[in-house]
Every structure is written in structure tokens, then in C-alpha cells.
Design a protein that fits this description.
Elements: E1 2-4, H1 12-22, E2 28-35, H2 44-56, E3 61-68, H3 71-79
Parallel strand pairs: 1-2, 2-3
Length: about 80
């Protein structure tokens, strides 16, 4: 399940809701699409911070931030 949560720390209710929907049997990907120039590097601290938070909540999820010129292009990149 792909969930466009932004940084999952700021939307714990959405992460919990998606965990309830999957009943812990599916994998969830929390995506964060940042609208910016694609040549800008994604900060690894942000990814590590999000993954640590998900581990503390015992969510079966990955956190993937991405930089894209539009939300649509970012969502397509996350799906791929």
C-alpha cells in the first residue's frame, strides 16, 4: 500500500489507519513528495528519522522521500 503521508511523524493517525486496513499482513510505503528541482539531493537524515519513527511504532512500513517537479511525477516514481 502506497500512502502519501509526507513525513510520517506528522501524520501518525494516517499511518495507524493504514496499518489497521492492512491488518499487519501487507507492506506499507509512506511516501513524501517534495516539490523541488530533481537535481537537489534528498537529505538522508530525514529518511533515517522517518524509518526510526516507524520502527518505534512497530509499523510494517518503509519511508521513502522523493524530490520531483510535480506530485503526480513523484507518485509515479514511488510506484515504480
Amino acid at each position: 500500500m502506497l500512502v502519501l503521508t509526507g513525513n510520517p511523524m506528522y501524520r501518525p493517525a494516517l499511518v495507524d489507519f493504514c496499518s489497521l486496513v492492512t491488518h499487519g499482513h501487507s507492506l506499507m510505503i509512506c511516501g513524501n513528495v517534495s516539490l523541488n528541482d530533481p537535481t537537489v539531493n534528498i537529505q538522508f537524515d530525514q529518511k533515517d528519522e522517518g524509518e526510526t519513527w516507524l520502527k518505534k511504532r512497530a509499523a510494517k512500513a518503509f519511508y521513502q522521500p522523493i524530490v520531483a517537479p510535480t506530485v503526480r511525477q513523484g507518485a509515479i516514481a514511488l510506484l515504480q
